[in-house]
Amino acid sequence: MADEVLSQNEIDALLSALTTGDMDAEELKKEESEKKVRVYDFKRALRFSKDQIRSIGRIHENYARLLTTLFSSQLRSYVNITVASVDQIPYEEFIRSIPKVTVLNLYNVSPLDGRIIMEVNPNIAYGMLDRLLGGRGDSINKIDNLTEIETILISQLFEKATVSLKEAWASLIDIEPELEDMEINPQFLQLVSPNETVVVVSLNTAIGEVSGMINICIPHIVLEPIISRLSVQYWMQTSTKKRDPEASDKLAKNIEKVPVDAKAILGETTMSIQQFLDLASQDVIALNHPIDQPLILKINDEPKFHVQPGKYKNKLSVQVLEEIKEGVEGNE
Question: Which part of the chain is the Flagellar motor switch protein FliN-like C-terminal domain (predicted)?
Fold first, then answer.
């Protein structure tokens, strides 16, 4: 159990109580020496550490952003999806916490064992359906009697969400999610045993004027093969891994072929609009660059080299004298 840190006011109050005799120091020592017992519920076995729960939260924060983009484009409406909470609870408790009639999308996440559930609140599900059918997205709860066409439309929308799910999990493992089934009654969906630990990721969802929750239920059996990857050490190791040398060489060669704009600047000057209008043939324009100083060669408008002008094979050319160090542009 983590140690509690007292504020300065609490420390002052404690010292005052000991000084005045309101609190006995011997009693405090006695209480400290007694064994502290913490109640543990074996039905709510905590099989994931806080570090692992945070990693799952990070993955689904990315998933929420991807879903926001997907649903915004598909529904042509304002959509905002954010992670509200990540908890580990028994599967039975998850089933009891969702409405009796709701939309349950069942995904297979090969090569991982087991399946995950995406539970969509009826307000959100019908609001999506109304938008797909050209409505304003008003929520009218009629999930229990969807027509065959309406069921197909909702299924197709959440089938497209598998691409976002794959992308969100790509930093951890390559999965091939597939929408297996859609159910409206959670009592018909016995995914794992009632006491099995599941991770439930709750997403706050707003679509137009309608808001509700999307809950993603991930059983322990799904995460068990990759549970070691849900640690900070794994994330740090993967982030510092060197790139594939072959891919780096290929990238470098492709970059070398990118065209750039090179300009040798003879000099610059300023003049008024009237002077510009008065220019005539044979007029001389004095530039601000000294004749005995090298010119500036700019690459994509960035000064890179000092050069001197000349001729090469009957063409005007410049010869590179030295590189201009970063932050030193020389006199133009």
Answer: 254-324
Other beta carbons less than 10 A from residue 91's beta carbon = 21
Predicted model pTM: 0.58
Domain 259-323 classified CATH 2.30.330.10?
yes
For 36-92, the pLDDT digits (tens) are 666 655 555 567 888 888 888 989 999 999 999 999 988 888 889 999 999 998 888
Tell me whether residue 164 is exposed, middle or buried, using C-beta atoms within 10 angstroms of its C-beta: 0 to 12, 13 to 18, 19 or more.
buried
Rounded-to-integer distance, Cα 77 and Cα 68, Å: 10
Query: What letter represents residue 80's amino acid?
Result: N
Residue type at 245 in one-letter notation: P
What single-letter DSSP state applies at residue 272?
Answer: -
289 has a pLDDT exceeding 50 = yes
Alpha carbons 179 and 258: distance in angstroms, whole number: 43
Tokens of 79: 């959509």
